[in-house]
Amino acid sequence: MESKRQQKMASLLQQELAAVLQRDLPHLFGGGLAPGISTVKVTPDLGQARVYLSLLLGGDAEARLELIRENAKAIRQALGKRIRQTVRVVPELIFFHDDSAAYAAHMDQVLSTLDIPPAPQEEPDDTADPLRRPRLFKGE
Questions:
Q1: pTM across the whole model
Q2: Disordered: where is this region (predicted)?
């Protein structure tokens, strides 16, 4: 369970990292699309941040993730320039590939190929009157 402090920091990091990757360091991606940041999780001491990136568009996901990991120091430095008035210490950034969108697309494809027969039609019950009180005893 994350504390309010962790949630605030994670939200701030998510917004500012997106801005850093899209505006400050677009040259890292060779003119391609900057990755989306799906989630940021911060440790209780605010010393580390796990950043989950959505790398669906723009080519090989593993190569792009490795490029981001190699440039983590430059990304952290650019992030520090943006949030230096807000936080005391810029957390260490650890990047991970978030493949939940690809998994959801795969599961959607699998479910669409299933042949599920429709449920049988039930006959309406004429004795079920919604305004009628349910019987609790035999004599009622």
A1: 0.71
A2: 115-140
